[in-house]
Amino acid sequence: MIWSKYNIFFRLRLTDSLLRGILSMGAVISALVMLLIVIFLILESWSLLGRISPARFFTDTSWHPLEGAYHLMPMLAGTLYASTGALLLAIPLGIASALFIVYYASPRLAKWYKRLVELLAGIPSVVFGFWGLTTLVPLINQIHPPGASLLAAILILALMILPTITLTAYSALMAVPDEFLRNATALGLPRWGMIRGVAFPAARTGIVAGIILATGRAIGETMAVLMVAGNVVQYPDGLFDPIRTLASNIALEMAYAMGDHRAVLFVSGLLLMLMVMMLSGMAGWWGRGHRA
Amino acid sequence: MNPNKPVTAQAISSKEGGFTLGPLQMGPACCDPEPVIEVENLSLRYGDKTALDKVTLDIYRGCITALIGPSGCGKTSFLSAINRLTDLIPNCVIGGHIRVDGQDIHTTESNVQALRQKVGMVFQKPTPFPLSIRRNLSLPLCEYGVTRRSEIDAISEQVLRDVGLWDEVCDRLDTTALALSGGQQQRLCIARALTLRPKILLMDEPCSALDPMASGVVEDLISRLQGHYTIVIVTHNLAQARRIANYAAFFWVKERAAGQLIEFGRCQHIFESPTDPLTAAYINGTRG
Amino acid sequence: MLKTNARRWRHFYLDRLVQIFVYLAVLTVCAVFLWILVDLLRGGFAHLSWNFLIESPRDAGRAGGIGSILVSTMLILLVALGAALPLAWTTAALLAEYVPATSKFGMLVRYSLQVLAGVPSIVFGLFGNAFFSIYLGLGFSILSGGLTLACMLLPILVSTAEAGLRAVPDSYRLSAAALGMTRAATLIRLLLPIAAPALAAGLLLGIGRAVAETAALLFTSGYVDRMPGSLLDSGRALALHIFDLSMNVPGGDVPAYASALVLVAMLLCINIFAMQLVQSWQRRNTILE
C-alpha cells in the first residue's frame, strides 16, 4: 500500500529521506574543506619538508630563499612582537569599552557605542591598512623615521582586534547573573569593587576566550600589517624599526615564488595554521576546564 | 478507517456545511458507549524513569474524556502516546498496545501521518505559527495534498466558523496570527487541528494558559464539539472536568513510582461516588 | 565602620580612576573611528562621481573609475555565495534539526568548522592558489577566487544559520509533528520561513566579510583590472584595488581614497541593515517566548 502511486505519503517519505541525504552530504563537504586545506598545505610544502630538516627554518643564517637559506625566525619574531603589542594595547581598551557598555553608560549611549564597535569590526583590513599608510605612517615618520614600523603595525592591529575583544567581553559580562551584582551592591561595594570582585571572576572564561580569538586574528592578519610595517626581514631593535610578519611575507613573495621558495611559503602558511589551531584548541580547553 | 490506508485529498475536503464532521456521524452517542481508542497495559519509560505503568482504558466515541490527577502522574505522556508524539522523544520506550479504530498504532507498519491526521492535538500553550492566519490553516492541508486555493479557502472558512473565530478574523486572514489574543490563538490552534478532519482530538490543558474569560470561551467551544469529535482532555481544573466531561480517568503517582490509572468511569460517578479512597481524597481536595 | 578613613578614600579614588580610564578609552575609540571616517571622506569625497563608479580604470587606476572592479567584485561575490550558501545552509539544517547535539558526526563537523573559522585569510589564499588555480586548473580567475572565498564564508554562514534555527521554539516543531507534517516539510515550510531573518542577517554578514577580503584573493582571482569577459577571466576585487593603488601605484592615493570610501560605505550599509534585521527578529522572538 505504501508504495502505491496514489498514496500521498509515498512522496513525503521519499522527500524526508532524500532531504536528510542531501543535508548530510552538505555537512560532509563542509567538514571536508578543512581536511582539504590541511592536505594541500602539507602536499605543497612536502617537496621541501621531505628533504631538509625543519630545524633549518630556525638555524639558517638568513632569509634568502632563492639561495636556499630559509631562516623564518625574524618573521616569526615580527609576528609575535606585533601581536603581543597589539594585545597589550587592545585588551585594556577593549575591556574598558565592554565595561562602559555594560556598567557605565546610559542604555541609549551604550546602544550607540556598541553599534559603533560593531561597525568598526566591519571595516575591512585593507582600509585600516590604507588609513595607516596615509595617516599613521607619516605621523610616526615625524617622530622617528622611517614611519613604517613595528609601532604602526601594533597600532593598526590593536584597532582591528579591539572590536573582537570588546564584543566577546560584552557578551560575557552580560551573561553574569544579575543577582550576583545585586548582592554585591547590597554589600555596599563601590562600582569598581563590584566589577573586580564579582563581574570579572564570573565573566573570566568568556573574556579570555575572546582574547584568544583576537590573538588568532592578530597572528593571521596580513594586508593591514603588510601596508604599514615596512617589511624588512630583521629582528626589530625598537618600536620604530620596520618588521615583516609571517603572513605578510607570504603575501609579498608568493607572486613570484617558484619551487622550493614556494614550498617554504607553504611551510610558513602551515606554521600559521598550526599556531591558530593551537590557540583555538587552547580556547576550547580553557572554556571546558572552567565550565566544569 | 484503517491506519494503513492512504489518506487522499478527497477524504479531507468533502464539502459539507456546518461542522467539519457531521453531528454524530461517527457512531452512537455516549449513552451507548462504543470504544474508539482501546488502551491495553500501556507502559511508558523515559530512559530509566518509568512514567506510566500498565494503564488499561477505553475511550468512547463521541464523548469527552477528562484525565485528571496531580502533576507528573503521566497524563500528558499518556496523551502523546495516543498520536505517537512520543516518537520524537529520544529514549522513550513504550510497552503494551494502543488500538485506534481496532488498529494497533505502535507497530512498524502503521502509518504515523495517517494516525496524526485522524488524531489531532492541541497544546497547553497556544502555538500558532508566526505566519498569517490563512497560512496557519493551509500549511497542514498542503501537507496532505489539498492544493487548490478555492478548496483551502472553503475549508479554512468552515473550521474558523466551527470554532467561532470567523466573524472575528474574516477581514484580516492575511495578518500574522501572533496579533490575536491568547484565547483567539488557542481557538485558531483548534481550528488548525480541525482542518485535517480528525476523529479524535487530544487536548493538553487547553485552557490553563488563558485568562478566565478566554478560558470560558474555549471551554464552551470544547463542549460544543462534543458528539462531533471524540475528545480526550487533560485538565487540572476539576470544576471544568465536571462541567464538560462525560467520562473521567483519575491518574495518581506514588513517590518515586510510575503514574497509574486509579479509577475510570462516568464523570458523575467519579465526582459523586468514587470507589477508590484516593480519588475521593483528590476530588475533595484533601490530597494532591 | 570596618574600614579606616584612609582606606575608604583610597577606594573612592580607585573607583574614580577606573571610571576616568573607561571614559578615556571610549573617547579614544570614538575619536579614532571618526578620524578614519573623516580622513576617508576628506580624501575621497571630491573624487567620487557617477562616472567614477561606472568607468573602467585607466593608467593603472590613476585615472578613470572602478566600474570593471565593481563588476568583478560582484561576480566573485556571486560565485562565493552560490557555492557557500547551499553547503552552509544544508549543514546548518542538519546540525540544528537532524543530528543530536552530542553525536560524533555533529561534533566533528562543528569542530572542523570552528577551526576553519580561525584560519587566517592568507592561508585560504595559499590553499585556493594550490587547489583551485593549479590543481583544478582554473588559473587566476574569478571562479577560483570566488570558490576560495566560499570556503572562507562557510563557518560564519553555518554558525549564524544554525543559531537561527535553534532559536525557533520547540513548540512549533511539536505542533507541526502533531499535525502530521514530515520533518522535511516542517523544515522547509515552517522553520526556514520563521528563521529567515536570521539567515538573511548571516548572509549579509557573509557578504560583508567577502567584500572586505583581500589576502585570500591575492593569488586566486588575480590583479587584472579589465572588465571580465567570463568567470574564467581574472578580475580584481575592490579591496585588492585599494591595496594595489596605495602600495604599487605612485600617485594613486586619491582614487584609492575614493575606492575605500565606496567600500566602507557599502560595508556600513550592509552591516547596519544586518543589525536591524537581527534586532527586529530578536524582538519578535522575545514576544513569542
How would you portray this structure in words?
The complex is a heterotrimer of chains A (292), B (288) and C (289). Chain A is mainly alpha-helical. Chain A has two domains: 8-51; 63-291, MetI-like (MetI-like fold). Chain A has eleven helices and two strands. Chain A has a two-stranded antiparallel sheet with strand order 1-2. By secondary structure, chain B is α/β, with parallel strands linked by helices. Chain B has a single domain (32-283), classed as Rossmann fold (3-Layer(aba) Sandwich). Chain B has helices at 9-12, 75-82, 112-118, 133-143, 149-162, 166-169, 182-194, 212-225, 238-244, 267-272, 277-283; strands at residues 35-46, 49-60, 64-68, 92-100, 103-104, 119-122, 200-204, 230-234, 247-253, 259-266. The relative contact order of chain B is 0.19. Chain C has helices spanning 5-44, 50-54, 67-98, 104-118, 121-135, 142-166, 170-178, 183-212, 215-218, 238-248, 253-288; strands spanning 57-58, 63-64. Helices cover 77% and strands 1% of the residues of chain C. Chain C folds into two domains: 5-47; 51-288, Orthogonal Bundle (MetI-like fold). The mean pLDDT of chain C is 88. The chains are: A mainly alpha (292), B alpha/beta (288), C mainly alpha (289). Chains A and C meet through helix 1, helix 3, helix 4, helix 5 and helix 8 of A and helix 1, helix 3, helix 4, helix 5 and helix 6 of C.
Strands in their spatial order, largest beta sheet of chain B: 6-7-8-3-9-10
- Could you give a short account of the major beta sheet of chain A? 2 strands, antiparallel
Summarize model confidence as the mean pLDDT of chain B: 82
CATH C-level category of chain B: Alpha Beta
Largest interface in this structure:
A-C, 85 and 88 residues
Question: Separation of termini of chain A?
Answer: 53 Å
Give me the CATH architecture of chain B, please.
Answer: 3-Layer(aba) Sandwich
The DSSP helix count of chain A reads 11
Helical run tally of chain B: 11
CATH topology of chain B: Rossmann fold
Task: State the separation between the terminal residues of chain B, measured CA to CA.
Answer: 40 Å
Residue stretches of chain A low in confidence (pLDDT < 50, at least 5 long) are 1-12
Look at the structure and give the CATH class of the largest domain in chain A: Mainly Alpha
Low-confidence stretches of chain B are 1-17, 21-29
Order of helices and strands of chain B: HEEEHEEHEHHHHEHEHEEHH
CATH architecture of the largest domain in chain A: Orthogonal Bundle
Shape of chain A: globular
Number of strands of chain A: 2
Domain ABC transporter (chain B): 37-283
InterPro entries (chain B): AAA+_ATPase, ABC_transporter-like_ATP-bd, ABC_transporter-like_CS, P-loop_NTPase, PstB-like
GO molecular function (chain B): ATP binding; ATP hydrolysis activity; phosphate transmembrane transporter activity
GO biological process, one term (chain B): phosphate ion transmembrane transport
